[in-house]
Structures are given as structure tokens and as C-alpha cells.
Amino acid sequence: MDALHRRATLLGAVGTALGVAGPVMLWRGRSGRKEIRTELAAQKITFPERGLPAELACYAGRRVETGPDAHAYAEFIKGNLAHATGGRTYAEITAELHAAGGDDEKLSELRQTAFMGQTLRASLMSAYQAWHLTTLVTGLGAALTGLGVALVATADSLAPRSPNRS
After folding, report:
1. SS3 state at 63
2. What is the pLDDT confidence band of residue 89, given thresholds at 50, 70 and 90?
3. For the packed helices 90-99 and 105-158, what is the interaxial angle rounded to 10 degrees?
4. What's the average model confidence in pLDDT over 107-133?
5. Is the dihedral of CA 146, 148, 151, 155 positive or negative?
6. Is the Cα dihedral 19, 24, 25, 26 positive or negative?
């Protein structure tokens, strides 16, 4: 087997592997995106009709069903949480509660509010990040599919032709 034939064989094998991996990634990216949509829709989160900050007004009355929607709602929670806690975090409120001896009912309730708000926000931000990952996986799948096809075609053009082969 000469060097050109070995190269063509290697290119064909790599191209075939990429040609198989690419569609799998496309499928996984699309199914991941569908799963995110399904999970977000199941939560039945809807932006309020009124009272949204100007930058979120376009979401009024809309359900949270996509990664960008989840991000926008997380920002909505962030604003509400900052207002409710005076800009303090769960950790800061906990420190205040401990400094007060741990018996301050108002701080305890505020700490619970901060915990719930930050947890909900983190969950929505996770959905947003997962949305971006599905975009990346789908894009890479398309690129690998194209590269695989190109490598197989290149390998085919480099392969030595026998006299009986056109």
C-alpha cells in the first residue's frame, strides 16, 4: 500500500467517523433543546402583564419556554429580590441574622425570601446555559457532518483508480 493510498484510507475513515458523529450531535442538540422547552413549559411560568421594568416590557404576559425567556425571567427575579432584600444576598442576611443572635423573625423571613429567590434564579440561569450548550452541540454537529462529507469526498478523489473503475 503506497503513501497516497494510506492517506486516502485514513481520510475516508476519519470522514466516516465525523459523518456519523455529526448527525448524532445534531440529534442530541435538538432533543436537548426540546427537553428544555418541555421542562420550562411544565413550570407554567408567565411574566406579569404589568409592572415589568422597561427592558423586560416585551415579555409582558408571555410564558417562559426558551432559554432567553428563562434568562429574562431570572433578571426579573433579580430585580424583585434586590428590592425585597435591599440589595443584600442570602449570605449577607444570614450573617446579619447570626449577629443578631438568630432570633430576629423579620431577618429569618427575609433570609428565606433571599434563599428562594436566588435558588429560582439559579435554576432559570441553568436552563439558559443549557440552551446555549444545545446551540453549541447542534452547530458542532452540523460542522462535523460537513467536514466528514468533505473528507470522504477528498479520500475518494485521492484513492487510486483501478483500470475497471471509472
Report:
1. strand
2. very high
3. 150
4. 96
5. negative
6. positive
For residue 152, what is its C-alpha cell? 470522504
Other C-beta atoms closer than 10 Å to the C-beta of 81 total: 20
The strand pairing partners of 46, in sequence order, are: 63
Distant-in-sequence, close-in-space partners of 130: CB < 8 Å, separation ≥ 6: 32, 36, 67
Bridge partner residues of 63 (DSSP): 46
Asked if 45 contacts 63 with a C-beta cutoff of 8 angstroms, the reply is yes
Cα–Cα distances in Å, from 129 out to 17, 39, 133, 141? 28, 14, 6, 18
Per-residue pLDDT for 161 more than 80? no
DSSP secondary structure letters along 104-150: -HHHHHHHHHHHHHHHHHHHHHHHHHHHHHHHHHHHHHHHHHHHHHH
